[in-house]
Amino acid sequence: MSLVIDDRKSNRTDNDRNTTRIDWTTPLASIIPEDFVLPDDYATTHVTIEDALSHRTGMPDHIRHFGGNGPSSRTVREEVRLLRHLPSTAELRTKYMYNNLMYTAVSHTIETLTGEDLGAFLSHRIWTPLQMTDTYWTPEEAQASDKVLAQGYAWNTDKGEYIPEPPPDIIGSSGAGAIISNVLDYAKWIRCMMTREEPLSAEAHEALVQPRTIITDDPTILFPPPHLYALGWTQAIYRGEHIVWHPGGVAGYGATVMFLPAHQWGLVMAGNTTLTSNFVQVVLYMYLLDELLKTPPNERLDWSRLIWERVNLHREQQMHARELLYPQLPTVPLPPAHLVHEYAGLYIHPAYGRLDLFVDAGGSGLVADRTTCEVPMMVVLEHVSGEFWLATLQEKNQDPRDYEKVRAEFKTGVDSRVNEVGVDLEAEMAGEKIWFRRVY
Description:
- This protein has helices at 2-9, 41-46, 49-53, 76-80, 100-114, 118-127, 139-144, 183-195, 202-209, 276-292, 303-319, 321-325, and strands spanning 152-156, 161-165, 213-215, 227-229, 234-238, 241-250, 253-260, 265-271, 345-349, 353-359, 366-370, 377-385, 388-395, 404-412, 418-423, 434-438.
- By secondary structure, it is an alpha+beta fold.
- The protein has three domains: 1-116, DD-peptidase/beta-lactamase superfamily (Beta-lactamase); 135-301, 3-Layer(aba) Sandwich (Beta-lactamase), CATH 3.40.710.10; 325-438, Beta Barrel (Lipocalin), CATH 2.40.128.600.
- Pfam families: Beta-lactamase, DUF3471.
- This is Beta-lactamase/transpeptidase-like protein.
- Residues 21-275 form the Beta-lactamase-related domain.
């Protein structure tokens, strides 16, 4: 985005359809007005490029909506047009809430302004100047090269072995992480950021790392506070040293990039397992940081232990999810208002897609297959009391102890027929549910 902004400032553009000057404070709706529409009119017209890139739009991630109608079922533009159907939970610029879809919106903005695919733009404006010859935009491009594409894996607890994961095809969320690369190539990008070299301008480098949002609560960050977010970069202080970094992961893969400007020291880590790659990277990069900063042995933390404490705390909470989510259940639960098979059917949400519920094998619960989504899972519903249910989100190849359990609820229409099901699919909504309307 910084390259596009600089091009507009210097009138250096090959796209004559739109030569309007833009900057980081330009509202997205002024560039893609038909597509960028939020539930709130004020936010629609006032969310800027930097708001979207610094996670302060007031909209949570809604990560489970991606691919709601199947893999690669939506284009970048189609994904952006779903924003109008996704609830916001805070006022604009009042709270940090990570949101990958806003990066999709910015990628759509870049493609609109340049008239070319984002992958092609990145290739000739960044990868080629930096000689990043082993970096690709799609799995097809990577597989067509003469390079070996690392197989991704996820640990399967039941089988006690690693299970292969297919290469992620996430064009719909490409602005948030579609690049396929290796540590040698990506180190060139980190060096560019750290030394503030071309192809980015000095102004662009300054803008990218300028903090904009205070991160008040993010359980994935182990660095002590304060934490700040710039434009695609997290800012942290460790033992008095400024750290610019970002972790990330998709099914089968995990990565971490980091640099310390004052030390001109950086790293790129990449692994080919789901989640556990990131766990190992935390232990390794904290060891390297402690070595660099000469942390006394008695002041070094056991990062592996801290990670597992968080994992085990989450598992303990999931074991008692029924009591935690429904603390005021009657002594004798109320029966459901309908027979179980009357709840079965196809339910649709305009952004989250399909929730096709079937009666389970035991005949007392319901199950929906969402394994073709970007976050693939089975949704298993267990009756609690009345119209209230417990939904277990069984993500593909996830340890069953880590399955998240959330509230679910059915509504009945005036025709005495079940017509809606709500599932608590977004934690930032504080108990408010995503409602799927029955189709049949």
